[in-house]
């Protein structure tokens, strides 16, 4: 609360004036230290977090990203924002991605799968098909990158 009050008192709500000493940059440094990671980025929304993750994975025009049929529009909108094509996959009884439908939707252009959990519930215990076929966990929260070699081996 003190950090929020200090930002409001300063009148500097954005980091562009003094980027290296801004409260945002300080928070990012502390969060990285706490989490034991090298990089972190404070964003204003989940949509922008997804966009940043997709850009970080190098996803863009010509790529496909599998998203669940039951999700908030921001999931597919983030894919469109980076120039990729969202591919809608069916859900199962857990309201998460149906692994069998995910398998059917994977093409040589598939670069990522974005699983979504609902109401804080766990994702389906069966991992998406691409992950079980050898794509390593991404370390990017819910984004599962699909490596082209894994997709080609799966066909």
Could you explain how this protein is built, in words?
This protein is of the alpha/beta class and 155 residues long. It folds into two domains: 34 residues, no CATH class; 109 residues, Aspartate Aminotransferase, domain 2. The chain is built from seven helices and four strands, in the order αααβαβαβαβα. The chain has a four-stranded mixed β-sheet, with helices on both faces. Helix 4 links the parallel strand 1 and strand 2. The longest helix has 13 residues. The C terminus is likely disordered.
Characteristics:
single chain, 155 residues, alpha/beta, Aspartate Aminotransferase, domain 2, 2 domains, four-stranded mixed sheet, 7 helices, 39% helix
Short note summarizing the structure:
With 155 residues, the chain is α/β, with parallel strands linked by helices.
Return the string of H and E elements.
HHHEHEHEHEH
- End-to-end distance, in Å? 53 Å
SS class: alpha/beta
Please, how many helices?
7
Shape: elongated
Q: Strand order of the main beta sheet, please?
A: 2-1-3-4
How do the strands and helices of this protein lay out in sequence?
Blueprint: H1 2-10, H2 23-35, H3 46-56, E1 64-68, H4 73-81, E2 85-89, H5 99-105, E3 110-113, H6 129-132, E4 144-145, H7 148-154
Parallel strand pairs: 1-2, 1-3
Antiparallel strand pairs: 3-4
Helix pairs in contact: 3-4
């Amino acid at each position: 609360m003190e950090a929020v009050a200090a930002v409001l008192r300063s009148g500097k709500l954005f980091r562009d004036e003094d980027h290296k000493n801004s409260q945002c940059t300080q928070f990012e440094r502390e969060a990285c230290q706490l989490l034991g990671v090298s990089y972190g980025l404070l964003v204003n929304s989940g949509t922008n977090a997804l966009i940043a993750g997709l850009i970080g994975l190098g996803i863009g025009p010509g790529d496909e990203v599998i998203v669940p049929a039951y999700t908030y529009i921001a999931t597919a909108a983030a894919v469109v924002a980076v120039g990729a094509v969202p591919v809608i996959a069916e859900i199962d009884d857990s309201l998460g991605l149906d692994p069998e439908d995910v398998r059917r939707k994977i093409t040589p252009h598939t670069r990522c799968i974005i699983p979504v959990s609902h109401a804080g519930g766990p994702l389906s215990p069966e991992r998406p098909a691409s992950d079980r076929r050898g794509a390593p966990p991404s370390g990017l929260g819910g984004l599962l990158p699909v490596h082209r070699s894994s997709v080609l081996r799966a066909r």
